[in-house]
Amino acid sequence: MQLFNNPSKQDWNGLLQRPYNDNTAVLQSVQSILSEVKQNGDAALRSLALKFDGAELKELQVSASEIEEAEVLLTTELKQAIQQAKENIFTFHSFQMHKPRSVETMQGIECWRKSVGIEKVGLYIPGGTAPLFSTILMLGIPASIAGCKEVVLCSPCNKEGKLHPAILFTANLVGIKKIFKVGGAQAIAAMAYGTESIPAVYKIFGPGNQYVTAAKQLIQVSGVAIDMPAGPSEVCVLADETANPAFIASDLLSQAEHGVDSQVLLVSTSEPMVQKVLQEVKKQLEQLPRKDLAQKALNNSKAIVVNTMDDAIEMVNEYAAEHLIVCCRDAEVIAEKISNAGSVFIGNYSPESVGDYASGTNHTLPTNAFARAYSGVSVDSFVKKITFQKLSKDGLKNIAQTVIEMAEAEGLKAHANAVRVRISEP
Ligand SMILES: NC(=O)c1ccc[n+]([C@@H]2O[C@H](COP(=O)([O-])OP(=O)(O)OC[C@H]3O[C@@H](n4cnc5c(N)ncnc54)[C@H](O)[C@@H]3O)[C@@H](O)[C@H]2O)c1
Ligand SMILES: N[C@H](CO)Cc1c[nH]c[nH+]1
Ligand SMILES: [Zn+2]
Fold this sequence. Notes:
CATH architecture of the largest domain: 3-Layer(aba) Sandwich
Bound molecules: nicotinamide-adenine-dinucleotide, L-histidinol, zinc ion
Distance between the termini: 80 Å
């Protein structure tokens, strides 16, 4: 992790760049994967599974017996943990569903809006470097609360052509039956275009590596919606001299261990504090089984010291991190000043890992500064909001002149007539 001391504001933009900003090569190879799947369907999926996952697949869909067998392969403790996480995530997300409320905009004109679940959705569950079964809870629970009728799940298999039992157990727990052993950009293509085995969906959700994220961005031109670009994980920690260096180091490493393309950032007003964190990072890194991955991510990562807390807040807002941890005096007051972040963790006892797994909030979040404009996944992501209106005859009379005036000014006489014909009815 490189240390930068009081960089000038002109240098901020360069400093805050993500490591793999130029994804031209990734986009090109993903484009050819998308075309291959569009043309050759299941056959392309089999050959890409061999190429990227080393697996020779006969059936792409997980069978009912594979799902049943998975349950006995997990410990009771893990099943209980998944169940607890499910309950918290359900509690947080069920509060996001609103009952339609009708508003009378003028006398006799009633308008309302209703949320309707998207009928067919596809969930991508990352599995290249770790089987992220927690992501199934993050996507499957809001999909079920929203009332999505058809849910398709894709995740890459191992060399033996199998999905991790925790993926199968968790999918079954949230009621997902259509599970496919397909990963990477090819999974996104399959859910967008449909193949002989995999049904096409209307919207695709879920995080993934650079290939998966590029594929989600590219398939939008074919009319399929996506949740957001949720690429390689990142965390930014905002800390002053009151923070605990060991806690901060553990948070930075928790996201660095996701993969070589992750980035972590420490922004602080205290150089001595940053030095202590850097020492702690070295110490704690040695204990990690995924030390090599984390080390590569740390090579892309930065610790930045600034003069004032106002500068620090401005910097983290410009960076727009997927996750922001605020470990400062008056952390709650500072958190109120955050305008760009996927999810914020306040104070010394709110490590990001709790949001990754079990506190209740969603961990599928915008990366690569997309938090400036996108929100993380929620029940809203799985619904369309349809507006309705009903006018009485008197209501139409009340608004008639307004509409006729405006329609005629736009030169659209037929629009005006649709009102006139009704109010002139005897
Ligand atoms: N933003 C979020 O909300 C969020 C949440 C969880 C995880 N993540 C991120 O998801 C990512 C998961 O990545 P992963 O790699 O472990 O799993 P993954 O499932 O996203 O990707 C694995 C697949 O990538 C494809 N692939 C690998 N190398 C390729 C190449 N050279 N060309 C084309 N395709 C290739 C293969 O098909 C492989 O099956 C991590 O970066 C993690 O940080 C993000
Ligand atoms: N930190 C990831 C989101 O960027 C989510 C996750 C899943 N498992 C562990 N972490
Ligand atoms: Zn994580």
